[in-house]
Amino acid sequence: MNYRQLGNTDLKVSELSFGTWAIGGAWGKTSDKEALQALDVAMDAGVNFFDTADVYGDGHSEELLAKATKGKEDRIHIASKFCRAGDIHDPDNYSEEQVRTYLENTLKRLNRERLDLYQIHCPPMEILKDGKVFEVLDKLQEKGKIRYYGVSVETVEEGLLCLENPNVRTLQVIFNIFRQKPLEELLPKAKKQGVGILARVPLASGLLTGKFTKNHQFESDDHRRFNQNGEEFNVGETFAGLEFAKGVELSEKLSWIANNRENMTRAALRWILDQNEISCVIPGFKNIKQVEDNLGALSVPSFSTDEANQLKEFYRNEVHPHIRGAY
């Protein structure tokens, strides 16, 4: 396992880490037993960083992380997120009292006294512009409840605004072969300012695994079924903003990336790891097989300059025109 500095914090995190939305819920059937086994496999492989949120299974993913990391709290770093358990447009949802309540509940579920990284969970632009939530996070940091804080954003514009706050230490962004826009301005600027980057939705909700056909049917409790067109939350989140059938069509055109890289999953993750602005990539998982497959990205070849340029042109000409929503 390779480790990268998380921006200008004192944390070094495994370059391939994991997100825990899938084991919490809203990704189809899950098994706590399989999830805990998979977490053990990840940690045994050197993974020392996990991303979660209070709304992942209404806190269930946090509870699973507490069980998996018991006795390892000093060497396994955890990031969580807040705000989406309430009305994200209501300023009161970001008051000191409310944020402190969110944090205390998260710490209780994680069975920890302090959180390594606390992130605002995709807040609307007006909340970021107001900026009062950052003052609240400053106070929680001063009190020792959190080590660092950051923001999970939906758009490049939101990310650039967050960079104006010197105490924002990390940005979590949608970044994958289908969403390359952050490479133009956001990632270089974040790197220059010492802000860590967590790359989420790295496989475009599974499109970049190459496993789907246009007729694939997702389970009723899988957000890839009930949020395909942004019915429940941001349209740019599920399938990285692509309409599903178009996404499948585009992924088929990318099958070549698996050449000498075992499969598309590992190739897609490798492409992200090739970007030196990235602190870590956080794919999801539900079982040991998926953890091991994702970890395989660490040992496959990087993309050549010609291949990288080919992917850049592919994104610009064939993908970018079909992405929906702000991004």
UniProtKB/TrEMBL annotation:
Gene3D superfamilies in the cross-refs: NADP-dependent oxidoreductase domain
Domain of life: Bacteria
InterPro entries: AKR, AKR2_Oxidoreductase, NAD(P)_OxRdtase_dom_sf, NADP_OxRdtase_dom
Coiled-coil parts of chain: none
Species: Salinibacillus aidingensis
NADP-dependent oxidoreductase domain: residues covered: 15-315
Cross-referenced SUPFAM superfamilies: NAD(P)-linked oxidoreductase
Name of the protein described by the UniProt record: Aldo/keto reductase
PANTHER family, per the entry: D-THREO-ALDOSE 1-DEHYDROGENASE (PTHR43312), NADP-DEPENDENT OXIDOREDUCTASE DOMAIN-CONTAINING PROTEIN (PTHR43312:SF1)
